[in-house]
Amino acid sequence: MNNPASGNFKPYIEGLIEQKRSIGYPYATSAQGLKAFAFFCLDNYPDETVLTKEIAMHWAEKRQDEHVNSLLRRITPIRQLAKYMNSIGIEAYVIPSGIPEKLIRYVPHIFTDQELRAFFAEIDQCPVNSCSPARHLIIPVFFGCCIVAGCGPQKPGC
């Protein structure tokens, strides 16, 4: 496999990461995504030096079993890379906003009193484990704290 350290878009990837970090963003996860993109480009477009629509849209294809929100997280750093490249006068195709078409919003589940009782009855039965000797003590306390943190004087029944 080729080395992205000498890849087609190395100076621009490094420049974007440096820019993001210089203004205070840790930019660790996105930097990993850019590294994956660099490998992708070297494997699929080893001689290409322009971030074309073909490259960008190939990267933006939804993978089998990939959640739409994961796809968005994978596309976003590449969109930022193209915008960065354009801002320094280098031609690059920017993946349009709206790709992917629709994000899936998570709907929280509000547990009933009966569901909470059943849940805590189960975690109170957490077995002792020699690999994690305090697990059976910590898990019930942890989840108990999570529930208590959601309660307050304004919430009756807590």
What are the defining features of this structure?
single chain; 158 residues; mainly alpha; 6 helices; elongated
Describe the structure.
The chain is an all-alpha fold. The chain is built from six helices and no strands. The chain has helices spanning 10-22, 28-44, 53-59, 68-87, 113-123, 135-149. The model has no long low-confidence stretch (mean pLDDT 88).
Total of DSSP H or I helical runs spanning 4+ residues: 6
Q: Round the Cα radius of gyration to an integer and report it.
A: 23 Å
Q: Please state the average pLDDT score.
A: 88
Low-confidence stretches: none
Topology readout:
Blueprint: H1 10-22, H2 28-44, H3 53-59, H4 68-87, H5 113-123, H6 135-149
Quick summary:
The protein is mostly helical and 158 residues long. 53% of the residues lie in helices and 0% in strands.
